[in-house]
Amino acid sequence: MKNILILRAFLVVVMALFAVSVMAGVFVDWRGGFHVTYPDDWRVVPYSEVSSFLEEQGLDVISIDYDVVLAEKEAQPFQSGAYVFVALHETGALSARQIDSVLKSVAEVQFLSISEETLDGSTSLTKDKLIFDRKRQAAASYSNIKTATTDKAYLEIRKFYEKGVALFLCYAPQERFSEVKAVFLNLLETFSTRNLKEMAPKEDLKIVDPATRVRLASPTTETEPPAAGQGEGKDSGSKSIYIVILAIIIAGTVLVIRLKKRITQSGRDR
Prior knowledge:
Blueprint: H1 2-23, E1 24-29, E2 34-39, E3 42-44, H2 47-56, E4 66-72, E5 83-89, H3 96-110, E6 113-116, E7 129-133, E8 138-146, E9 151-161, E10 164-173, H4 177-189, H5 196-199, H6 213-216, H7 233-236, H8 239-269
Helix pairs in contact: 3-8
């Protein structure tokens, strides 16, 4: 009887692992040295599609240092549904004190209080706090971006690890945020720096390099960028939203520069 129970438990685990492998895709960020898992009904958005959209917003594609955009397959154009910009701040590993300094700076800029909590699907996200999960070495803040033409929920996730800070800028129509919140937070749950080659899809064995985006942006991919005005177009992704993306990435870079200066100055003072 005991052996039967053990066998059943083993089969349940195997089936669960099989289900995960079938139900999910993996994005490997070679520059960042990590990988994350996303649902099988999501996709990696071609650079050409993202570039076309950002250019419509009047933004310089090359200056926005992101590594990938993940989005729902059904959303055409991608910005009409839920999606995530993945970016990286290469600072090297930060100490606990340095992480606290970064969080304090972010909270001050965004007028938030810092709350230490566990970040998972059950976490209550409110507009007034920056949640820090010390065990996972990650922070998240939630806000709403509302204009005359759009109403977006915005979740910003920072993951501190040995190479620096991985940044996940998550967007969704406000009315669907509770539905996709778990997908966003699962990026943090599945974040790993191990076994990159084993986890990478065969067709994905290439390095993410912002300098190659001009070449990648040429219309040679299977998915063509949406024409101007097609679908929800600029209505679902107004300039203000993408200015926020740019501002956050720049703000993060500024914080990194300030942090490096503090570290250098403290070393001289000693």
